[in-house]
Design brief:
The chain is of the alpha+beta class. The protein contains eleven helices and five strands. The chain is 65% helix and 9% strand. The chain crosses the membrane at residues 18-36, 42-62, 69-87, 102-121, 128-146, 158-177.
Length: 341
């Protein structure tokens, strides 16, 4: 199978993979090693935090398609740890000369997490903004408390706040741009009238070489008469209605396309010709018994052809289209299957 082209929708997944499989384990190990080196012992809080990071890294490795509750669990774990640093910095018992290094560690990690969280929650932009701002606030407070303990200036805390806020707005803009590009890509592959896939989407399906199955070409009989008698608005209503019947009968997981005009294409991976014919007869009967708008009644002619290793989708389309012409020449409102390979 040819590799699917990489697009904007892949960005959060790819960033998440690098983040959880590389950065999170490194951060956990670094925090454990640095704090232990500075304090001379393994503090329980640091050990708990590092262990939590290792757990989430393992979970992401085992289940890359994370549910929302796992993402939230990870974010709240980080917030809780940074919150403890902000509320009780003395509990780690770090000597004063080393406390500024903790601030520098926060300066590195907080903006990085702000950026990644926007991508990690790109499907929940409001939640991403809330979590990122919460992390910025808690991280800045923690840095301020550590600088107070070390009797240093608050310049690093101010820098942390500024960098985190800039990162927050930049990441938000990136996610918004990604969403817009993804929406434009979706529209480029979608028929605007029916919401089904268009020819470009079908060409991409052909390139992916789906599992062997059946391809069908459907055509509305005497569609020109609908436009001539009731007008083009009624014709558009019929086209949308046919698309709705296809979705209802075949289900949302079946690749459906509007080829152009009154012609539709259906791909049924994993189906035999007999199974596909039974399903499409259900579609044809459903269309024949449906009333569209102002009493319009229509019928469908269907041609279908099996595809597989010996016959690609493009060839199957040509043969199914020939079977469709045979169905129309035989009186319309019927289904014809192309001969087996």
């Amino acid at each position: 199978m040819l590799p699917r082209p990489v697009g904007p929708a892949d960005l959060p997944e790819r960033i998440g993979r690098v983040y959880f499989r590389l950065l999170v384990p490194l951060v956990g190990a670094a925090v454990l090693w640095i704090v232990s080196s500075l304090t001379g012992s393994v503090h329980p809080l640091v050990a708990l935090f590092s262990g939590t990071l290792a757990l989430f890294a393992l979970l992401h490795l085992l289940r890359p398609g994370w549910g929302e509750w796992l993402r939230l669990g990870f974010a709240f774990s980080v917030l809780a740890f940074v919150g403890v640093l902000a509320l009780e910095p003395q509990r780690l018992q770090v000597r004063a000369e080393y406390q500024e290094q903790i601030v520098h560690l926060l300066l590195l990690l907080i903006p990085l997490n702000v950026l990644v969280w926007h991508l990690l929650f790109s499907d929940r932009p409001r939640r991403a903004q809330g979590l990122a701002l919460a992390l910025t606030g808690v991280g800045t407070l923690a840095a301020t408390r550590w600088e107070d303990v070390g009797a240093t200036q608050l310049t690093t805390s101010a820098l942390l706040l500024a960098v985190s806020l800039v990162t927050h707005f930049f990441a938000g803009a990136v996610v918004d741009l990604q969403r817009r590009v993804r929406e434009e890509e979706r529209r480029a592959r979608q028929d605007p009238l029916t919401g089904l896939g268009n020819r470009l989407a079908f060409a991409e399906l052909c390139a992916q070489l789906p599992a062997p199955g059946v391809l069908a070409v459907l055509d509305i009989d005497h569609f020109k008469a609908v436009n001539d008698r009731w007008g083009h608005e009624a014709g558009d209503r019929v086209l949308r209605g046919v698309a709705a019947v296809l979705r209802d009968v075949l289900g949302s997981g079946v690749p459906l396309f509007r080829w152009g005009g009154e012609e539709f294409v259906v791909c049924l991976p994993g189906r035999s010709v007999h199974e596909a014919a039974r399903l499409l007869e259900g579609v044809r009967a459903g269309i024949a018994g449906h009333t569209f708008g102002e009493g319009q009644r229509i019928t469908l002619s269907v041609g279908l052809c099996a595809y597989g290793p010996e016959r690609d989708l493009a060839t199957a389309f040509s043969l199914a289209d020939a079977a469709l012409r045979q169905a129309k020449d035989s009186g319309r409102d019927r289904l014809v299957a192309a001969p087996a390979a």
